Amino acid sequence: MLRSILYNRYTITFGTIALLAIVWNVYVIFNDDGIVVGHVVTSDGSPVENATVVLSEKTLLVTSPRDKTTTDADGRFKFSGHDIYHVYLEAYKNGVGHAPQKDYHLYFKGQNLYLSESLEIEKTQ
Amino acid sequence: MHRYPRWPIHLMLSFICTLMLIPFVWVLKTSLTGENIFTYPPSILPEDPHLFYYVDVWYSIPFFRYLINSVIVSAIVVAANIVLNAMAGYSLSREFAGKKIIIVLFLSCMMVPFQVTIIPAYLITKELGLLNTYLGMALPLCSTIVCIFVFKASFDAVPKSLIDAARIDGLSDLRIIFRVLVPLSQSAIATNIILAFIWSWNNFLWPLIIVRDQAMQTLPLGLSRFLTVVEDTTGALYAFCIMVLLPGLIIFLLAQKQFIAGLTRGAAKG
Questions:
Q1: pTM of the model as a whole
Q2: Domain ranges of chain A
Q3: CATH number of B51-264
Q4: pLDDT, tens only, B19-70
Q5: Is A53 in contact with A90 (CB distance < 8 Å)?
Q6: CATH T-level fold of A36-123
Q7: How is chain B split into domains, by residue range?
Q8: Which of A9, A61, A107 sits opposite B55 (nearest CB)?
Q9: C-beta atoms of A13 and B59 within 8 A
Q10: ipTM of this complex > 0.90?
Q11: Do A13 and B229 touch (CB under 8 A)?
């Protein structure tokens, strides 16, 4: 009786869906600190200190700036506590140049994002 | 042993199935890539597929709320259909005066489109105080004539001696239905579940009329609202379509064997 209840396609299908939902939610709980970490560099690869990095949120309708920070001596920047699922990052430094906007899709709100590619500031002439 | 080779038939059926599946594959592909549906030449396989349009849909509208609303309404409809249709089907499988007239009336009512009765249905629901409620949304689909006849056909196939024996044992009509006949009618139950679920899940017009609160909207209403708010996101729109379709598809695939058996039950009777 118990075997027939457990081993039928309804239990297996909905059980698998429930299990996947639980695993996904556990993963989300451990990875939703809203951290965005990256580097800002010039075109020759050297880090840019005191560059301003703007974090924007893009939804299907609008893009709106949410936070702003500056880079340290290594060109590193860090945001934390955001609750965005589609991130736009933009960097600039007065007198040096501007890095074009880059967008990053995330799978859930506040997903931690460690950028593998640096934001590259193009020097203004 | 067949007189003719079977492969040409299978080849033709496979070709027709492929043709029928193309729109679904197209919707799925667009939901994963967001490419323009008018892109020429069209590609069969998605290029750089991702799930981000599904994420957009999930967060752009209260999708989970709509999903829960749809699930609650469908659950009420399915439960009511099984109970009420089983009782109605049992009564029609018995002999009583005026049975033929009632069957003819039922069959005639099937030809009346829902749009014709929508104003009286609305007024009745209003008088019952069920506007903007789950029960109000479920009410018109709580019993459907097609499903009553599915149960009737299934109960007709049960030997009369079995019912007589149950009656001799002292079972009431209600217990005969739910203790004897319903357990023997699994295919009819599966057919009821699938049809009731799909009709309820896809129901758009009735919820549109009686639901005023945004928090009570179901998925088809959400899709309509999504279309009015977001006009230029093909990928997200198609992702939404897939998310709306998926539960019905899963239910159908799980119960298709019993569903087909239920629909053909009684066809070979006699």
A1: 0.79
A2: 1-30, 36-123
A3: 1.10.3720.10
A4: 999 888 888 998 998 887 777 777 778 888 999 999 988 888 888 899 999 9
A5: yes
A6: Immunoglobulin-like (2.60.40)
A7: 1-50, 51-264
A8: A107
A9: no
A10: no
A11: no
